[in-house]
Amino acid sequence: MPRKGEQFAGLTVALVTPFRDGTVDEGRLKANVDWQVDQGTAGVAPCGTTGESPTLSHDEHERIIDLVCTQSAGRIKVIAGTGSNSTAEAVRLTKSAQRSGADAALMVAPYYNKPTQEGFYRHFATVADACDLPIVLYNIPGRTGKNMEPETICRLAEVSTIVAVKESTGDLDQASAIAAGCDLTILSGDDSLTLPIMSVGGSGAVSVAGNIVPADLTAMIDAFRNGDPAAALQRHAKLFPLCRALLGLSSNPIPLKAAMARLGHDTGEVRLPLVELDSATMPKLEQALADYGLL
Questions:
Q1: Nearest-angstrom CA–CA distance, 25 and 259
Q2: 37 is in which domain, residue-wise?
Q3: Active site: which residues (predicted)?
Q4: Does residue 136 form part of some domain?
Q5: Which of 77, 121, 138, 257 is catalytic?
């Protein structure tokens, strides 16, 4: 049986926000969108964790989403990051993304204020009631401080415009419970777990590594979805060390931006409180890139 939100299956890339001299490098951002289109990527997600959304001003946040939607021009789906720990702000950002032409909103669970499970439910239900845009829930307790339990996610699945979940708990039991309990499309939020999550009912990923190897990730996802798990496993084995390096050497997106700069795809700048990858760690990243065949 098809799942809700199946139109968002496959690979969505969590776009970095390129900075140059402290401001958003709009030219590089547009070039990154075009490159993802050329690579055959299904979707892009601006203004998420990888896009350093906590450091963006409100004007920058809305401008980036608008620019990505305009540059995409219907060639690739845009799942815009519109989450906030303020429900009113999440409503405002989601309405703005809808006006810009986004295909969906990627909404992180409210962070820092640690809502109850009822608070999680009312937060997302309020945004859904205020906007018509399809919503992809984003559950990442390692950053938000509290898990949105499977029962809450399955309850939210009853809201018509809540169609998918980006599952970033690192817990296959949680992914399995969601798959068994509701019909949301499940997207992996951890590149190294994409294939395991697909094996218990997932349909794709919102990916960090897709900023540099999108075609390979798409091939892995497609292989599994097309009934060739052996080919998918072979690709997973090659991707795994690179994914672990990008997400394990330092806080995301520090290693990713360093890798993109090394590969000629980005300026490499991050905004405080993030800092550039230190010189002692850079050789480990370069080794991972070389082992993969990128250098």
A1: 17
A2: 6-228
A3: 138, 166
A4: yes
A5: 138
pLDDT band at 1; cut points 50, 70, 90: low
* CATH number for the domain that contains residue 40: 3.20.20.70
Tell me how far apart the alpha carbons of residues 132 and 240 are, in angstroms, rounded to a whole number: 37
Per-residue pLDDT reduced to its tens digit, 147-166: 999 999 999 999 999 999 99
Q: Which residues are annotated as a binding site for pyruvate?
A: 50, 206
138 catalytic per annotation: yes
Helix H or strand E segment including 167: strand 162-167
Is 293 inside a domain boundary? no
Q: What would the pLDDT profile of 21-78 be if each residue is shown by its tens digit? A: 999 999 999 999 999 999 999 999 999 999 999 999 999 999 999 999 999 999 999 9
249 assigned to some structural domain: no
195-206 per-position pLDDT tens digit: 999 999 999 999
111 is catalytic: no
Quote the CA–CA distance of 175 and 107 in Å, as a whole number: 18
Peptide bond into 229 cis (omega under 30): no
